[in-house]
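[job 4471] stage=fold_predict status=RUNNING
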Amino acid sequence: MNPYLVDLWNNASFVAIIVTTLVVIVVESTRAGRPALSFMLTIIGLAVTALFAAMKIGDAGASFSGMIRFGTFTSFFEILFCVSALIATLLAQQHLQKLGWNRGEYFILVLFATTGMMLMGAANDLIILFLGLELMSLCLYVLTGFIRINAKSNEAALKYFLLGAFSTGFLLYGIALIYGLTGSTNLTMVARSFPLVSENPIFLAGCGLVLIGLLFKVAAVPFHMWAPDVYEGAPTTVTAFMSTSAKSAAFASLVILFVQTFRFEAMPMNNAIAIVAAASMILGNVVAIAQTNIKRMLAYSSIAHAGYMLAGIAAGNAEAQSGVMFYLAAYCLMNLGAFGIVSLLESAEEKNLTLEDYAGLSKQRPLLAAGMALFMFSLAGIPPMAGFFGKYYVFLAAIKANLTWLAVIGVLTSLVSAYYYLRVVVMMYFRDGQADAHVPRPATLIALSISALFVLFFGLFPSVLLSLTTTIF
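[job 4471] inference complete, writing structure tokens
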């Protein structure tokens, strides 16, 4: 068979999402102002893309002259990106209609952003990683300011764009230094050269600059200052998409580079990552306590969760890789569910976003209150939710890598996080109020149900997902 056709078949998931994006663009150009068809095509396209990715879950290889990987690790993340984008899209329809901004361009941007994330998860070349990151980032900048008549949304988009462009400079400069020493941007070639250059100061500087660029995307301390403002200013369903899928793509790149390619295990570079992880866990959880706006609270919570997962990157062993992948799957589901319920309570005037606005929700909307409680318990790491096992596997990997102090900080900060997560539950069940939410439409109900069911399923049967992540390595 023609080698180009073989490459296309091995990357059928990319073909599927690109074709879907192009079809939606054509539909929008001919049916402007009627986004319902674009919404349906996006849902179908993401589902088909995930199906193609699942078909390659048992394979492993590289295509297009070794620049793009397929199968196993890549397939896992492609499925995760597509499922997260699908849930976020289901949530978005009702929310955008409520805000009066249900436009087909939204779905095009989500598809392009997902394509960029898939490139990051499949990258076997630093140039491909950079292209994927920029494609994702540019779409997220626009999505953040999607409601262009909203001053807060515009401010958030501008902050995100300026800081994101600045962090990209670090990433590119780091890639240039790595290329200058190894003579290649191909990660397979870089990995072969690693034993020879691992102690070279220029190479270490290049790795450090690349690390800074990716730490910005996961909102880790000290590159976190954009997250609270952007999460608060962006439309809530965009925040849900950004805080889960984009973070997962950045962590996929961190695993590819700092665990699989650069073997820094038990070296100063990984100690630096461990310090960043500890700082993120401490700052994210402590500052979240003082927040009264639930979107800002979840933003600082997101910083803390980045710290938990960075503990796995710092460990750098096989247990850490599977643990981080489990954690990302659980985090995407519980965070999408939490933001989905926030979007239902939020009014068209962007009100009902304080914690006090959730008082009495259990009496007005008992099912939504139960769902929110489930997601809060999981985010806090309370068994038998998926969030508990995500933290358990990451901390276990840290202990095996002789980073017991980091695991202890993780456990202690998790106890701190229980305060502000359970505060939401207390408001809903033990405070009198008139909290109310919009009745979820079928698409929103499906999205919330998927999130809740899988948070419970992976909590009760964690071995199902863990066995998949373990066999990848």
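[job 4471] summary: Residues 264-473 form one domain.
[job 4471] exit 0
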